Amino acid sequence: MIKLYKYLSLTILAAFLVTGCNEDPNPGLDDLISPSTTPPSISTIEPSSGGLAGITVLTINGSNFSSDQSKNAVFFNGVKGEVLSATSTQLKVRPPNVISDSVQVKASVFKVEDFSNIVFYKLAPAAVEIFEFDPANSGTPYGITVDANENVYTSVAKQTGAGIYKVDPQGTLSLWAPKGAESFFSSLTMGPSDVIYATRRVRAIFQVSEGIASSTYVTYTASIGGAASDSDFDQNLNLWVGANGNILSITPAKVIQAFPFDGNINAIKIFNGAIYAIAASNNQQILWKVPIISADNIGTPEVYFNFTSEVDSVIKLNDISIAADGDIYIGTDAKEDPIYVIHPDKSFEQLYPGIIKSTVNSLCWGTGNYLYMTRNLSNDFTQTIIRIDMEKPGAPYFGR
Predict the structure, then answer these.
(1) Of the candidates 349, 390, 353, 347, which has an alpha carbon nearest to the alpha carbon of residue 372?
(2) Same domain, 160 and 268
(3) Residue 250, Cβ neighbours under 10 Å: how many?
(4) Is the pLDDT of residue 31 over 80?
(5) In terms of domains, do 142 and 107 share one?
(6) Judgement on whether residues 101 and 164 belong to the same structural domain of the protein
(7) What is the pTM assigned to this prediction?
(8) Following CA atoms 156, 158, 162, 163 in sequence, which dihedral angle do they give, to the nearest 10 degrees?
(9) Confidence grade of residue 20 (pLDDT, cut at 50, 70, 90)
(10) In the listed set 124, 151, 176, which residue is the last one of a domain according to the structure?
């Protein structure tokens, strides 16, 4: 009887051990993969011509993606992008800051063993230096403007050979006009017949033509207005000037009209029949809108956006540029992400976070999708000109 009990006990123990081995509480990696599931496939990536690294939201078309956004991953030369939305046939992805003409793009889906096919795609830098300015040799650039052929002009300060320099689209630097009495111009505005109009914070506007040193275009007294900081043309080729405590209009016949203004203006732009001016007003940094009625009449200035109260109480506004869709770009003295976008609904955001890492001196939109920026000197950067791909055109410009 004792032997029988002993035999039964061993039989029960063996059965228990066999049953326990059939239930693995810690499944291996193979159990997380569904071998029968078809891997994802990429057919096309839009825009087909390429995108901006870290910026452009790409549309990846294909099949066998997960409609659950979190279960998809897309890699660019092995670096994961940010999946923003997903269906079974399309992914919206922001790529990482990987720059190459032939980035390897592949996708994966959670619990699917194989990656997709590889598609090669071009990711370009969002911001590039158009010429490597060296203070000891090529000088230091300040005010900038752009002509109808996308040549960039800048007022360059240096010990010998200062003047207005041209950087062509291929990146070649050449002297366009020798300097006059100025050390440099803080603002340049391209005018009709490729004549440049310049300011340097005195009560005068200067005129520069190719091969000729700058000369005085108009001057005015303190009774008319304060020192001029910036200018822009309207559709009638009246030159509007932002000054300390005034807005000035100058007709093609050089008739000057002054309008009192509550603030010291740093920069102005003309858009849709109005002057947009950034100014220091009552210790606040404000973007103003001033309707233009005629060369000798303007509407009541209105606060379009109070940067000090809405964004930051310390940052200073240095320059302004406007897109065709009405977005307003303000260059500031912020040391990182210095350009802010003010949308028509008055919402705002920083332009291309993490891409631009120095304060703004000047801004100027070219003939297409490029916004040019004079980057200020800092501990880590020389003062130079940066070309920013905005992926959209600027507002109409009447001077060129």
Answers:
(1) 390
(2) yes
(3) 23
(4) no
(5) no
(6) no
(7) 0.88
(8) 20
(9) very low
(10) 124
